[in-house]
Amino acid sequence: MELQLSDDQELFQETTRRFLETSTPLPTVRELAADEPAGFDRSWWRQGAELGWTSMLVPEDRGGGSVSDRGLLDLALVAEEFGRLVAPGPLLAVNLVAAAVAEAGTDDQAAAHLPGLLSGETVATWALAEPGGSWTVAGVALSAQPDGDGFVLDGVKGPAEAAGQADLVLVTARTGDGLTQFLVPTDAEGVTTVEAGSLDLVRRFAEVHLSGVRLGPEAVLGPVGGGAPAVERLGQLAVVLQCAEMVGATQRVFDFTVEYSFDRYSFGRPLASYQALKHRFADMKLWLESCHATAAAAARAVSDQAPDAGELASVAKAFIGDHAPAILQDCVQMHGGIGVTWDHDLHLYIRRVAQDRALFGTPSEHRERVATFIGL
């Protein structure tokens, strides 16, 4: 996304790319989709954690660390590479929970959960949405009822990424008029997961069913009833990483479509030689570069926790969420009939981008947020 990277960032990006190209090329992604119930291999995920994929949003004094002094920008590089190869693994889910614990957790909570998250031993996810609801704070209906010095949770959360494979779920619930976040082990009594559908071939989703789940005060992450700022922050992080992933996927598809247009001949000429197609490629390139710039601006703002971070994150999701799928559909048209077959890799990218577009707010929902930010 960024025009200029430091030497360390370039090395980190290249190392991540080489690892993904070697360990999970697209044929392997197809195999995981068909043969791996979890969609990813735990030992592979631990190797990724060793490369730093899970530590970027955790400060050094809590065991984390980043390549630069702006961990979100470093993690966005990883997300971009994930999009480039439609890679498996709960990158977004685990990092959101790690960030939440690092920012709001007590020392005891950090000691209990961060080592496993950072090493890749623990898989976690954030359960914000609820069935049939929106990916906004207004969509949170599950209520946590006081029970002595703890709480009881009853209801359903999700769909949440990797909830069926997770060891820990960060549950957002209502307590009175406010929001409270809870760290819920999936092996706690009363917790079950039910598999949900997924458009992406290697991303698994599930609903989290909570039936009389009793939680002590040690499960409360942050202030009781005061979790709204933390929820907003996590939402911004999620959107930035999604945008980076969508941009990475779209860039890769655009690149191999341009290459195909020079290799594919029609009436004795390469497709790329036709003026009408040149115009379409020019339009796609303009949209794609705008996607890069918008994603980068949002990542910098959210990284710095700028006053307009929420607005820029929503601008990015609204713009990229509309234009990335449009670019991919144009690339399908450029490929002709082969572009709509199962054998071609295009559909893997379309699935990833379409799913990212829908999660944590659709473009229309984010346009509504922008309108609110600017006072409309």
Molecular structure report:
- With 376 residues, the chain is of the alpha+beta class.
- It has three domains: 7-119, Butyryl-Coa Dehydrogenase, subunit A, domain 1, CATH 1.10.540; 124-221, Butyryl-CoA Dehydrogenase, subunit A, domain 2; 228-373, Butyryl-CoA Dehydrogenase, subunit A, domain 3.
- The protein has eleven helices and ten strands.
- The chain has helices at 7-23, 26-35, 42-50, 71-84, 91-104, 107-119, 228-263, 275-304, 309-335, 346-358, 363-373; strands at 124-127, 144-147, 150-161, 168-175, 178-185, 191-196, 205-215, 220-221, 265-266, 269-270.
- The strands form three sheets. Strands 1-4-5-8 form a four-stranded mixed β-sheet, with helices on one face. A four-stranded antiparallel β-sheet has the order 2-3-7-6, with no helix packed on it. Strands 9-10 form a two-stranded antiparallel ribbon.
- Strand 9 (265-266) and strand 10 form a beta hairpin.
- Helix 4 (71-84) crosses helix 7 (228-263).
- The longest helix is centred in the middle third of the chain and has 36 residues, at 228-263.
- The protein is globular, with a radius of gyration of 21 Å.
- It starts with 6 loop residues before the first helix and ends with a helix.
- The model has no long low-confidence stretch (mean pLDDT 95).
The CATH architecture assignment of the largest domain turns out to be Up-down Bundle
Annotation, overall tally of beta strands:
10
Strand order of the largest sheet: 1-4-5-8
Task: Point out poorly predicted stretches.
Answer: none
**Structural class computed from helices and strand pairing:** alpha+beta
Q: What's the end-to-end separation, in Å?
A: 30 Å
The helix-strand sequence is: HHHHHHEEEEEEEEHEEHHHH
CATH class of the largest domain: Mainly Alpha
User: Could you tell me the strand content as a percent range?
Assistant: 15-25%
Annotation field: number of helices? 11
- The CATH topology of the largest domain is Butyryl-CoA Dehydrogenase, subunit A, domain 3
The major β-sheet equals: 4 strands, mixed
Number of structural domains: 3
Shape: globular
Q: Report helical residue fraction.
A: 40-55%
Radius of gyration: 21 Å
| CATH superfamily annotation of the largest domain | Butyryl-CoA Dehydrogenase, subunit A, domain 3
Mean pLDDT: 95
